[in-house]
Structure formats: structure tokens, C-alpha cells
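From the pipeline queue, job 12 of 40. The input is one protein chain; the requested action is below.

Action: predict structure.
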Amino acid sequence: MRVAVYAGTFDPVTRGHVSVIEAAVSVFDRVIVLVAVNAEKVPLFDTAERLAMLRDATAHLASVECAETEGWVVDYARAHGARFLVRGVRGATDTDYETMLANANRALAPEITTVFIPAHAELSQVSSTRLKELARAGEDVSPFCPPGVKDRLHEKLRGGTPSQRQEVLHVGV
């Protein structure tokens, strides 16, 4: 069985992420979409929220499961029988960074192969960060994220107390 792990922050999941997951499902028997908790990042959504959005966005894909880790992605992959890491790429800048990450992962786990999958071209310009910027500016983000994400994003950015909203706007995530 070919098992792959697709790890990321997914804060929040975008249609570009989903396009990568859908492509991965056509190549691998099982795809684990992994929320990688990074202490250096300050996410807008907590881990449970990101997992819920991922599960909603991938519910139509029977061979996908969603999980989380605070450890090394390669350690998680080993522990779950995955021999492949999937990395989504949007363009040349992503490819440079992802190649560097793939080489680091190869040094840690030479038995695990990294596979690059480009997002659909029409979705390649919107990252999670850009999606949040568009939502903060009041733009329609529905073309770039699953419906449940759009609703949660607007609720998160518009909800809470005025001081919480100011904090969210100044964090720059």
C-alpha cells in the first residue's frame, strides 16, 4: 500500500490545498493530511479548528484521513507506514523552498521520498496568508476556499471582542 503524508499549517485550508490532496489521492492508496503544529507560527485558527476544516474539505475523499503532529513530519510518516511526503507547490519560489525542505527530510529519512504536486493553475496564487488578507479586506474569498472555511474565516475575523479583533489584525498571520 502506498501511503503519503501531506503536511502543512493549513491556517486555513484553501482550494489549492484541496487540489493537491485530490491529485495525491489519484497517485497514493492512502493520504494522511497532517496539521503540523509549528511553535514559531501564530495561527489564526487553533489545531482543532484547522483539523475540522480539513475534514470537511476532504470528506468526499474516502482514502484521506486528517491528523496532527507537533513533532517531525518524517517521524510521523515512519510511524504510520508512509513512504512518501507530498508537497504542494504554487511556483518557482515555493519550488526553491520545498526542494530545500525535501533535501533536509531526505537527510533525516532517506527511505521517504518527497513528491511535488502543483496546485491547479487558477488557484496557485492564493496561499493561506493571502486568503486571510483578502478576507480582512472584505474581498470575496469563496473562489479560493471551501465554503465551510469561508464561513469560519469571516466569523473569526469579524467575531470576538473589539480588542480580540485588533489583536488578530496586528498579528499579521
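Job complete. The beta strands are 3-8, 30-36, 64-69, 84-89, 113-118.
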